[in-house]
């Protein structure tokens, strides 16, 4: 019997029946009873059922809970709403058209990639004879990334609005560090005193305090992880930042204490901060709203534009192992060079 999804399910049912029969003393030593039971059902599972099996396989193989919640569950919901079995390229294209009408181009391409992986898995399990998604091409230009950043004037207006408001002034130093060191939100939230060297003026970024696997952002649910890129980087602290860190440190500060806890002493809830503090500060400042993670883009953008960083320097400050990501995202900032004049 080939090792396929349907055959494996049939074998599992037979094994369960044998276990029960042994327990109740009715085991058939000739196995004739179980041979009939081990035949797989002829009915082919629906596309929804197959995708649910695919999700289980992905989870068993290490796909994170957050990915299951943010990518796979929405696809499953869309498959249920589509309410058709996808067995041909035409039906697959019809489903992709539905997704593209509901999703941004980037997310639609991401969904297509997941569905192609699902199709390959189904073919391997011999529950599909062909992958109906394989021939469908992604949308062109959808993955071109150009990230927004604050202008210098916007930074000053925003920080002034944060400093002058009673509800947001507590987070002023936290926001200064976001802009000044270009930390990812989870890195800043998780920064501990043992990683701040006040004598040498260096901050070491080696970990993050990220959202939970299922996407929860509350302080109690956050999890310690390595940095997003898996790298460790040391960042120099300016004299202004050093004053901020020294003012926050007290003799009671322990190495594992958070540098920037919430007002209740817990890790900052980034969703709550974005909605209640950051978004309202942008409104008071009279500037366009950009989410907090754009502080990192602002840091790199101004480093390249105003400080004349090389791509290698920018990659190092952001914790990237090479310059590819920086070039892909920020190459639009390069001025078109003057063409050589051959005086012909």
Provide structural commentary.
The protein folds into three domains: 5-37, no CATH class; 47-124; 155-292, hpI Integrase, Chain A (Orthogonal Bundle), CATH 1.10.443.10. Helices cover 50% and strands 5% of the residues. It has 14 helices and five strands. The chain has helices spanning 5-23, 32-37, 47-60, 65-82, 89-102, 105-124, 152-164, 172-181, 185-189, 239-248, 270-285, 294-305, 311-318, 324-330, and strands spanning 196-197, 202-205, 208-210, 223-225, 233-236. The strands form two sheets. It has a three-stranded antiparallel β-sheet. Strand 1 and strand 2 (202-205) form a beta hairpin. Helix 3 (47-60) runs antiparallel to helix 4 (65-82) and helix 12 (294-305) packs antiparallel against helix 13 (311-318). The model has no long low-confidence stretch (mean pLDDT 86).
């Amino acid at each position: 019997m080939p090792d396929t999804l349907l055959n494996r399910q049939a074998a599992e049912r037979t094994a369960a029946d044998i276990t029960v029969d042994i327990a109740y003393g009715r085991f058939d030593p000739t196995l004739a009873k179980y041979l009939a039971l081990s035949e797989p059902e002829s009915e082919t599972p629906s596309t929804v059922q197959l995708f649910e099996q695919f999700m289980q396989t992905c989870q068993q193989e290490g796909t994170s809970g957050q990915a299951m919640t943010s990518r796979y569950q929405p696809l499953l919901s869309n498959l249920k709403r589509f309410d058709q079995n996808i067995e041909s390229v035409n039906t697959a294209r019809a489903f992709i058209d539905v997704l593209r009408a509901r999703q941004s181009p980037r997310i639609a391409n991401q969904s297509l990639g997941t569905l192609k992986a699902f199709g390959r898995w189904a073919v391997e399990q011999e529950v599909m004879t062909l992958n109906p998604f394989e021939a469908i091409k992604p949308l062109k230009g959808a993955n071109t990334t150009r990230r927004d950043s604050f202008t210098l004037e916007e930074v000053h207006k925003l920080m002034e609005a944060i400093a002058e408001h009673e509800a947001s002034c507590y987070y002023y130093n936290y926001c200064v560090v976001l802009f000044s060191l270009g930390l990812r939100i989870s890195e800043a939230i998780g920064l501990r005193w043992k990683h701040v060297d006040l004598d040498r003026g260096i901050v070491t970024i080696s970990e993050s305090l990220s959202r939970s696997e299922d996407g929860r952002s509350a302080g109690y649910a956050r999890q310690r992880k390595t940095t997003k890129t898996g790298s460790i980087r040391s960042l120099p602290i300016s004299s202004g930042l050093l004053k901020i860190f020294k003012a926050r440190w007290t003799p009671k500060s322990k190495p594992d204490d958070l540098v920037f806890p919430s007002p209740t002493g817990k890790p900052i809830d980034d969703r709550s901060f974005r909605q209640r503090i950051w978004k309202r500060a942008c409104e008071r400042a009279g500037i366009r709203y950009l989410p907090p993670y754009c502080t990192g883009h602002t840091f790199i953008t101004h480093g390249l534009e105003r400080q004349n960083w090389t791509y290698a320097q920018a990659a190092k400050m952001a914790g990237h192992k090479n310059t590819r990501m920086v070039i892909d995202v920020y190459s639009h900032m390069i001025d078109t060079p003057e063409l050589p004049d051959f005086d012909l």
